[in-house]
Design brief:
mainly alpha, 91% helix
Length: 186
């Protein structure tokens, strides 16, 4: 397309140059200008314009058609984006309109969750306290039983030790204990 424009410009320049030379050579200095003098340049200009229209019509039409398709595509894309934006705006307006309701709903849900959490926590705490109390009572009972058992053993050991001491220090007891053990063995 650039070459065509360049060649057209060269053709016009050459045509004008040859026309001026031919006019200057054919007439003298005393020539009075008339409308007929413009006839050949007008014919050259008409031929040039007709040639340019003939050669440039198709590329210019294609360029304009291409631009029309691009503009149409751009307009369709803009319309779609506009519709999407309007839908988004409607959605946001709806959300904004229902915001106080949503906030109150969230607050109610929060309060319910807190109430449920506190009840659950209280129940779990009471369960842990009861279990701890039961475990502590079982542990205390076990330690008490162990201490009583140890105390009974010590008491029995102490009684046996005192009995042995009493039997060992008294000969009468020794002979009675020996006779009783022997009679039991028989």
């Amino acid at each position: 397309m650039k070459n065509l424009a360049r060649y057209s410009f060269i053709f016009i320049a050459l045509t004008l140059a040859f026309t001026n030379v031919a006019l200057a050579a054919g007439k003298g200095a005393d020539h009075v200008p008339s409308i007929k003098d413009l006839m050949y340049p007008a014919i050259n200009f008409t031929v040039l314009v007709a040639f340019l229209i003939f050669k440039l019509k198709k590329p210019i039409k294609e360029a304009f058609d291409k631009k029309a398709v691009e503009v149409e595509s751009l307009m369709n894309s803009a319309a779609k984006k506009n519709k999407d934006a309007e839908d988004k705006l409607k959605t946001l307006k709806t959300k904004m309109d229902t915001l106080p309701t949503e906030v109150s709903k969230i607050q109610k849900d929060y309060e319910q969750d807190v109430t449920v959490f506190m009840q659950t926590q209280s129940h779990e705490t009471q369960t842990v306290i009861a279990r701890t109390k039961r475990d502590l009572e079982n542990k205390l009972e076990g330690e008490k039983n162990e201490l009583v058992l140890n105390l009974n053993e010590e008491l029995l050991s102490s009684v046996i030790a005192k009995a042995q001491q009493a039997i060992g220090s008294n000969n009468d007891y020794k002979s009675k204990a020996t006779q009783k053990i022997v009679s039991e063995l028989r």
